[in-house]
């Protein structure tokens, strides 16, 4: 059977990637780090240009905030990984006798979302090169130009310091005519290619599912429906300020941004007034209906028209009027689920708002939200009660529990906390991912362990204890408690 | 670097320790000229410790100049042999 165009294209990309992987494997830590530094510097140097390109091409978000995303994707990522040992012997413990050796994993396919194209590319290229893995960038169709430009800038910087040829490739050019290709088939072929080592899929559920079912190991993400619990010990003006910093950042396009506020009734009036004071607008029931129609489609999924849209655009699309200078739209709801469309994830400046009787009621609502499309992703809390924070952390199902900080920037890491910086946030098995980690360079190496002889002393001593010539392990008359006692004797 | 061996159409090439990009750019046209009319080409990798992407390209070009089976790469150290394997070229380029 003749090869399809998709198969030929995948073969060509992976043949080049394999050869780049081979050459890369020879580089030592110093040579590798030189490449990473050069790419970081090139990314930082072009942060404004790439941000403007991304905002203009996608029509999503704000270029100023995309500059900050590019800073995080280059500078913050670089600072997080620059001192990491990723080549050769990375640890050697004389006591345990275990020596760890880092190997590259091989060619990586990086799926890029339309919401954060340039910053995600910077992040994935830096982490891939740090671990000596060639990377193939698969851009979102609506962000081809800015994505290709980002990849090219990084590639040129890498080549200039002797990185292997084809260490960075991309699947489409600015000139690609999508009417003439089968995009879906090409992506499927690439994902399933025998020489691809890993897919790092940042995007919607369909692409992540495709990655996991391709047969190639994959690190993916899940959808977020981030609840924010505000308990009676919260600093209300501070909480509102932080939530606005997060939810208005790039017009709410980060998947870890807050989606719903859940507040204890004792302080709800105070919170509502503070939101109003800080330019939040509470929609009337009629306005909520109008916004629902344009924000969530008939399948219950967020409409692409509102992703990264400004408050003004949302108001215009919904046919409602909001005060000038409004930063955030809030919809007071009394249920979670299909009957309340705005209780689902909507990546724009709209927040659902719930008032609960007490902490337990508030927790229940947060759990409902968590289970309604956000399992494993992120959850936030504003509280000064450590017991409440711990209870929240133990109740929620979220890879990141963000405390007293903006959720968007908090989840990405290293801005308001010590989480590792990442634009690919694992959601664990609840989100159908393999990890809840913030994906970073640490996930892109194969670690080999050299195990030197270190006898298990207790086992050795135990085996020496023989009664009537019989090994005690074969004697079923001895109780487990007694066996354990003998095993641990003098230890 | 490349000399005739045993017969006029058999050429054996030896290389420096590091066949990096600079070295490959410097030597490529010279190597290709020397092997241009060869019937059999052998790349002797005895001293080689490092190869760049451009060296793989030289190998592929050399293999294309002769009939299948008449291009061989010999005396590869294990780390270099591994590179050809990872690159998926060990069978095509007849490594030993």
Looking at the structure, the CATH topology of chain B is Transcription Regulator spoIIAA
DSSP strand count of chain A: 17
Q: In what order do the strands lie side by side in the largest sheet of chain A?
A: 10-11-12-9-8-13-14
Largest sheet of chain A: 7 strands, parallel
What does this entry look like structurally?
The complex is a heterodimer of chains A (491) and B (96). With 491 residues, chain A is α/β, with parallel strands linked by helices. Chain A is built from 17 helices and 17 strands. Chain A folds into three domains: 5-220 and 440-447, Aldehyde Dehydrogenase, Chain A, domain 1 (3-Layer(aba) Sandwich), CATH 3.40.605; 226-419, Aldehyde Dehydrogenase, Chain A, domain 2 (3-Layer(aba) Sandwich), CATH 3.40.309; 459-487, no CATH class. Chain A has helices at 5-24, 29-45, 47-58, 63-81, 117-130, 144-160, 183-192, 205-212, 236-247, 268-277, 285-295, 311-318, 359-371, 386-395, 407-412, 457-464, 480-487; strands at residues 88-93, 98-104, 108-111, 135-138, 168-170, 198-201, 218-219, 226-230, 258-264, 280-282, 328-332, 350-356, 376-382, 398-403, 445-451, 466-467, 470-471. In chain A, the strands form four sheets. A seven-stranded parallel β-sheet of chain A has the order 10-11-12-9-8-13-14, sandwiched between helices. In chain A, helix 8 (205-212) links the parallel strand 6 (198-201) and strand 7. In chain A, helix 2 (29-45) packs antiparallel against helix 4, helix 3 (47-58) packs antiparallel against helix 6 and helix 4 packs parallel to helix 5 (117-130). The longest helix of chain A has 20 residues, at 5-24. The N and C termini of chain A lie far apart (67 Å). Chain B is an alpha/beta fold. Chain B has a single domain, classed as Transcription Regulator spoIIAA. Chain B has helices spanning 21-34, 53-65, 78-86, and strands at residues 2-5, 7-14, 18-19, 40-44, 50-51, 71-74. The longest helix of chain B has 14 residues, at 21-34. Classes of the chains: A alpha/beta (491), B alpha/beta (96).
């Amino acid at each position: 059977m003749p090869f399809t165009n998709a198969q030929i294209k995948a073969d060509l990309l992976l043949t080049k990637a394999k050869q780049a992987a081979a050459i890369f494997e020879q580089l030592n830590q110093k040579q590798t780090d030189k490449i990473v530094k050069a790419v970081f510097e090139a990314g930082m140097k072009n942060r404004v240009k790439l941000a403007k390109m991304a905002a203009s091409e996608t029509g999503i978000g704000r270029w100023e905030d995309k500059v900050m995303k590019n800073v995080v994707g280059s500078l913050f990522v670089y600072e997080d990984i620059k001192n990491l040992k990723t080549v050769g012997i990375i640890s050697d413990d004389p006591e345990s006798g275990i020596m760890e050796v880092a190997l590259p994993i091989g060619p990586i396919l990086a799926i890029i979302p339309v919401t954060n194209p340039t910053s995600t590319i910077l992040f994935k290229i830096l982490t891939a090169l740090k671990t000596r893995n060639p990377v193939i960038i698969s851009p979102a169709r609506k962000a081809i130009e800015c994505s290709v430009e980002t990849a090219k800038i990084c590639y040129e910087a890498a080549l200039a310091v002797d990185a292997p040829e084809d260490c960075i490739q991309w699947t489409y050019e600015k000139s690609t005519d999508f009417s003439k290709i089968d995009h879906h088939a090409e992506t499927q072929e690439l994902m399933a290619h025998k020489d691809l080592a890993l897919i790092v899929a940042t995007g919607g559920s369909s692409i992540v599912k495709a990655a996991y079912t391709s047969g190639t190991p994959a690190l993916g993400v899940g959808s977020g429906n981030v609840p924010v619990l505000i308990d009676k010990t919260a600093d209300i003006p501070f909480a509102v300020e932080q939530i606005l910093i997060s939810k208005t950042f790039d017009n709410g396009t980060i998947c870890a941004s807050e989606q719903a506020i859940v507040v204890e009734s004792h302080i709800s009036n105070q919170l509502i007034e503070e939101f109003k004071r800080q330019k939040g607008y509470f929609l009337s029931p009629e306005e909520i209906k109008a916004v629902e129609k344009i924000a969530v489609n008939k399948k219950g999924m967020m409409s692409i028209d509102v992703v990264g849209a400004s408050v003004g655009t949302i108001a215009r699309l919904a046919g409602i009027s909001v005060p000038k200078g409004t930063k955030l739209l809030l919809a007071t709801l009394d249920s979670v689920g299909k009957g309340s469309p705005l209780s689902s994830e909507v990546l724009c400046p709209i927040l659902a708002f719930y008032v609960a009787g007490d902490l337990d009621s508030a927790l229940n609502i947060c759990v409902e939200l968590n289970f309604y499309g956000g399992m494993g992703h992120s959850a936030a809390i504003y509280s000064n009660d450590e017991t409440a924070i711990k209870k929240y952390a133990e109740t929620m199902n979220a890879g990141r529990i963000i405390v007293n900080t903006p959720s968007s920037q908090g989840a990405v890491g290293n801005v308001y906390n010590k989480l590792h910086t990442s634009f690919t946030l694992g959601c664990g098995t609840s989100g159908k991912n393999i990890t809840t980690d913030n994906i970073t360079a640490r996930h892109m190496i194969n670690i080999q362990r050299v195990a030197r002889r270190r006898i298990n002393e207790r086992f050795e001593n135990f085996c020496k204890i023989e009664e009537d010539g019989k090994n005690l392990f074969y004697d079923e008359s001895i109780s487990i408690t007694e066996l354990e006692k003998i095993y641990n004797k003098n230890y | 670097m490349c000399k005739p061996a045993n017969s006029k159409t058999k050429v054996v090439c030896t290389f420096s320790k590091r066949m990096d990009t600079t070295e490959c750019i410097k030597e490529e046209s010279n190597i290709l000229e020397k092997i241009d009319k060869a019937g059999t080409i052998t790349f002797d990798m005895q001293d080689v410790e490092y190869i760049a992407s451009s060296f793989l390209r030289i190998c592929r070009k050399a293999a294309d100049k002769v009939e299948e089976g008449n291009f061989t790469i010999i005396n590869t150290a294990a780390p270099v042999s591994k590179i050809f394997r990872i690159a998926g070229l060990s069978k095509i380029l007849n490594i030993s």
